[in-house]
């Protein structure tokens, strides 16, 4: 049962202070924006509801791309190996900027594939290996910053770009190298003009494998044979050479592979896949033409069944490593029937690019791994088609109206491209789609509030994108990895869009978090509900509540729900969402979970159940200590980072809790990310 609900537990005025729509409107009036049009009513699903949604994109570790010759790259890209280890990102948002230092070749006019190849050959030629050469332990498990990722790939990638990627697949098919997938569809020979058939990965595959007696004797460039034991948290194959861990992108559990050593560290080696000697039955051809270039999806080369098994193993490994629980029972990962087209949101960097002999064009995409160059991901196969279409329309309108962008041609294009590269310009296009409502929310992130030609922009976008329910500018003057700045100005339509999950309707401001994969979100929340096993008498805290979605899902089964969220607009949305769904036992508070929960506990609140769904960084120590002091009967931990999950659980296990169940849920198919719902209860003896 829950505790005292005396006045001292009532939130302070400051806590209650929400940035209401009214206040926001007032602020915006000052900035000269038009008042928002009346909110549209939700439309029927319109066929979009069968696809799911979202996933965060992993952050890339700087300079961690494997080295190899062009031929090696072709081979390994086809085998899914041309990617560096990447850490995941937080909250489903991909950082606005590249996470690695600008490479020396960034100014050259090369395609991503060419530039990648160049870097590879430089490394093989003995160029210093970038990235972690400090001998520090493998950083991939450390829960890197935010990321939202969208891999790419559909039909519209620029021909030259896709040709390069396709040629990788073609080259691998030409080699007959054992174990590599045959292309599922024919690749035109013209796609790779002048490319010779694969000739042994620059000699690496043909070279005899090195077999030094000791892992310490392994040198850069050595080719070693490794049996892959598991998939790592960044989607890489993990094996051992003379008992030293080896991380090999593109290798799959139980495969025996030849790999060329790229980095040697005290505790691990990084190596590049050059040949699969024994192939996994889970190996498939990655369908996306920019797989291995854009970096959004890490495990497209693994069958979906294989991905679900790999994700379970990632969770198991984390608990074993960080919580000393090697025989923890983990339920099979809950997957999707159609693990594509699922993301409901895209956040794409945008630039105006010079096209030889013609007008400039607008490119929107993700930063190529290890570079400042944007990879065009139009047609991305994990984005919902409605999102892809909306991005295309927005690009077309920006181009047609010659709206300035904050970035010129990242490949060092013409300086005479009008209006390119200005602070007044658009930096990022954010499109969110309501799978049930059919609405599209468009937000343009700019560095200053004075984006020119706003009236024309509104008019053209309304015409081109009739399903657009609201258009906003978000002003972010800072060069940080975060996409959004703190100020959002509504230019037209609703300040917040609506969508629904099950029978709940939600209002979503541009900056507010909403799960990216709606189909899987319902499974996730149902898992939480079943785990909480509420009887109607409990006080529940929904920490890190976003727009209140989990709390509102649980509210009909609880006596009281209190949500905590740091983003003011999300708290305002959550409050509105409680009202519009008639959940009058749910209240939402603005603040940091690690500040508010201890304060409430100090004031006497004793929640029966605490649910926490933090960003990838996991739970703050103060929050964990408060759980141990407040002693809820149940703690339901929804986590998108198995490493921080296991580390946080260890603190609770040491403090008198035990794990009742762990249910991985695949929110982000084709990526190495995995969500898990872990239920902790007080040990009998600790009660
Ligand atoms: C992974 S999202 C989960 C949101 C929500 N539970 C859902 O399912 O949509 C994490 C949320 O935590 C919020 N957040 C981040 N740091 C926080 C903190 N220190 N205290 C409270 N909320 C925080 C973010 O703004 C985001 O809305």
From TrEMBL:
Superkingdom as given in the UniProt entry: Bacteria
Biased composition (Polar residues): 165-175
Biased composition (Basic and acidic residues): 17-26, 105-122
Positions of the TRAM domain: 217-275
Low complexity bias (residue ranges): 43-56, 67-101, 189-212
PROSITE patterns: SAM_MT_RNA_M5U (PS51687), TRAM (PS50926), TRMA_1 (PS01230)
Keyword Iron among record annotations: yes
Gene3D superfamilies reported in the protein's UniProt record: 2.40.50.1070, Nucleic acid-binding proteins, Vaccinia Virus protein VP39
Region span, Disordered: 1-212
InterPro entries reported in the protein's UniProt record: MeTrfase_TrmA_AS (IPR030390), NA-bd_OB-fold (IPR012340), SAM-dependent_MTases_sf (IPR029063), TRAM_dom (IPR002792), U5_MeTrfase_fam (IPR010280)
SUPFAM superfamilies, sorted: Nucleic acid-binding proteins, S-adenosyl-L-methionine-dependent methyltransferases
Keyword Transmembrane helix: no
Keywords assigned: 4Fe-4S, Iron, Iron-sulfur, Metal-binding, Methyltransferase, S-adenosyl-L-methionine, Transferase
Family the entry assigns: Belongs to the class I-like SAM-binding methyltransferase superfamily. RNA M5U methyltransferase family.
Annotated protein name in UniProt: 23S rRNA (Uracil(1939)-C(5))-methyltransferase RlmD
Organism: Saccharibacillus brassicae
């Amino acid at each position: 049962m829950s505790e005292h609900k005396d006045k001292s537990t009532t939130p302070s005025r400051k806590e209650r202070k929400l940035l209401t729509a009214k206040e926001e409107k007032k602020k915006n009036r000052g900035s000269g924006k038009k008042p928002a049009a009346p909110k549209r009513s939700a439309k029927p699903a319109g066929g979009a509801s069968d696809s799911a949604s979202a996933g965060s994109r992993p952050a890339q570790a700087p300079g961690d791309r494997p080295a190899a010759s062009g031929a090696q790259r072709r081979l390994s890209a086809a085998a899914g190996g041309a990617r560096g280890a990447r850490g995941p990102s937080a909250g489903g948002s991909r950082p606005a900027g590249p996470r690695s230092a600008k490479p020396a070749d960034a100014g050259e006019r090369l395609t991503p594939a060419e530039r990648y190849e160049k870097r590879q050959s430089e490394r093989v030629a003995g160029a210093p290996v970038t990235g972690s050469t400090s001998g520090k332990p493998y950083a991939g498990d450390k829960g890197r910053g935010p990321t939202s990722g969208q891999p790419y790939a559909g039909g519209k990638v620029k021909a030259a770009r896709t040709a390069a990627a396709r040629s990788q697949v073609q080259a691998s098919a030409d080699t007959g190298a054992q174990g590599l997938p045959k292309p599922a569809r024919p690749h035109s020979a013209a796609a790779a003009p002048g490319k010779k058939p694969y000739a042994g990965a620059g000699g690496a595959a043909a070279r005899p494998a090195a077999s030094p007696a000791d892992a310490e004797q392994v040198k850069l460039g050595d080719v070693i044979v490794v049996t892959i034991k598991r998939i790592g948290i960044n989607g890489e194959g993990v094996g051992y050479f003379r008992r030293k861990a080896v991380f090999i992108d593109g290798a799959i559990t139980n495969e025996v592979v030849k790999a060329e050593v790229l980095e040697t560290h005290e505790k691990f080696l990084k190596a590049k896949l050059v040949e699969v000697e024994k192939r996994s039955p889970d190996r498939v051809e990655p369908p996306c033409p920019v797989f291995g270039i854009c970096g959004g999806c890490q495990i497209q080369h693994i069958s979906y069944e294989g991905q679900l098994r790999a994700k379970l193993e990632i969770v198991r490994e984390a608990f074993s490593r960080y919580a000393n629980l090697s025989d923890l029972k983990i339920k099979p990962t809950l997957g999707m029937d159609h693990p594509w087209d699922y993301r409901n949101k895209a956040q794409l960097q945008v630039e105006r690019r010079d096209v030889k002999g013609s007008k400039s064009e607008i490119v929107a995409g993700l930063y190529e791994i290890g570079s400042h160059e944007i990879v065009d991901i139009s047609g991305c196969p994990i984005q919902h088609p409605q999102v892809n279409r909306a991005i295309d329309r927005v690009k077309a309108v920006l181009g047609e109206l010659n709206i300035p962008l904050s970035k010129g041609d990242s490949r060092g294009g013409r300086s005479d491209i009008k209006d390119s590269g200005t602070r007044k310009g658009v930096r990022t296009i954010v499109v969110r789609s309501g799978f049930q409502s059919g609405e599209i929310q468009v937000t343009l992130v700019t560095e200053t509030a004075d984006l020119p030609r706003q009236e024309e922009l509104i008019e053209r976008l309304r015409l081109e994108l009739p399903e657009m329910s609201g258009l906003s500018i978000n002003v972010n003057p800072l060069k940080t990895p975060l996409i959004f700045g703190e100020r959002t100005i509504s230019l037209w339509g609703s300040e917040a869009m609506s969508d629904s999950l099950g029978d709940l309707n939600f209002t979503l401001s541009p900056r507010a978090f909403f799960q990216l994969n709606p189909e899987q979100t319902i499974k996730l929340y149902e898992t939480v509900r079943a785990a909480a096993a509420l009887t109607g008498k409990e006080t529940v805290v929904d920490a890190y509540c976003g727009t209140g979605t989990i709390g509102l899902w649980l509210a009909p089964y609880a006596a009281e729900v209190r949500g905590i969220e740091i983003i003011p607009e999300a708290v305002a949305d959550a409050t509105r969402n409680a009202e519009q769904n008639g959940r009058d036992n749910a209240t939402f508070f603005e603040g940091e979970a690690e500040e508010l929960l201890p304060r409430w506990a100090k004031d006497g609140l004793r929640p029966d159940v605490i649910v926490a769904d933090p960003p990838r960084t996991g739970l703050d120590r103060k929050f964990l200590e408060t759980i141990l002091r407040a002693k809820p009967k149940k703690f339901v931990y929804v986590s998108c980072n198995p490493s921080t999950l296991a580390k946080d659980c260890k603190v609770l296990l040491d403090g008198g809790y035990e794990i009742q169940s762990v249910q991985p849920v695949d929110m982000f198919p084709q990526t190495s990310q995995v969500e898990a719902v872990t239920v902790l209860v007080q040990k009998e003896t600790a009660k």
